[in-house]
Amino acid sequence: MLLAEAKADAIMSRMNISDYQKEGDQPTLLITSDIVVVHEGIIREKPSSKEEARQFLKGYSGGHVSTVGGVVVTNLTTGKKLGSLDKAEVYFHDIPDEIIENLIDEGVVFRVAGGLLLEHPLVLPFVEAVVGSSDSVMGLSKDLANKLIHEALLA
After folding, report:
1. What average pLDDT does the chain have?
2. Which SUPFAM superfamilies does the UniProt record give (predicted)?
């Protein structure tokens, strides 16, 4: 939540908010989010090396990982800010070393929290179950965002 709120604050600090607060204007919403990956009680950032990426992915193999995503919707017209968290868990079958090495060689694992790519075609066959929503694991819970949008429009 803190990172999603900080993103909203950083964006708003660069805007002239009074431009969005004119009487009769349609509401303007700012949506920000952030996600962390938690494995065995430890928050995992984007892997910074091949070895760290390998360690992360091997740790998920045959186990599970959790994600916690924060979403903040700010109604720029009224100044009201609403936010909430969404959690999900991903359970994996054993992921072969060859798949892990291919993911690392592609480099895409270095651009996402925990190196976790649920939607990647190399990863998807090894996903046993998702508890929660897949879109939450991928970075933004659509259901939560929609709920906050509707509440922000009424604020």
Report:
1. 93
2. ITPase-like
pLDDT of residue 114: 94
Total domains present in the chain = 1
What is the residue whose two structure tokens read 């600090």? 13
Helix 97-106 and helix 50-60, axial crossing angle in degrees, nearest 10: 140
Q: Phi/psi zone of residue 40: left (φ > 0), alpha (ψ -120 to 50 degrees), beta? A: left
Has residue 95 got a pLDDT over 80?
yes
Coil, helix or strand for 149? helix
Beta bridge partners of 24: none
DSSP-assigned beta bridge partners for residue 30: 74
CATH number, domain of 37, equals: 3.90.950.10
Task: State how far the Cα of 2 lies from the Cα of 79, in Å rounded to an integer.
Answer: 18
**What gap in Å lies between CA 62 and CA 55, rounded to an integer?**
13
Provide the sign of the torsion angle of the four alpha carbons 73, 75, 81, 82, taken in this order: negative
β pairing state of 42-44 and 64-75: unpaired
pTM for this structure? 0.85
Q: Is the CA virtual torsion 77, 15, 29, 79 positive or negative? A: negative
Q: List active site positions.
A: 34
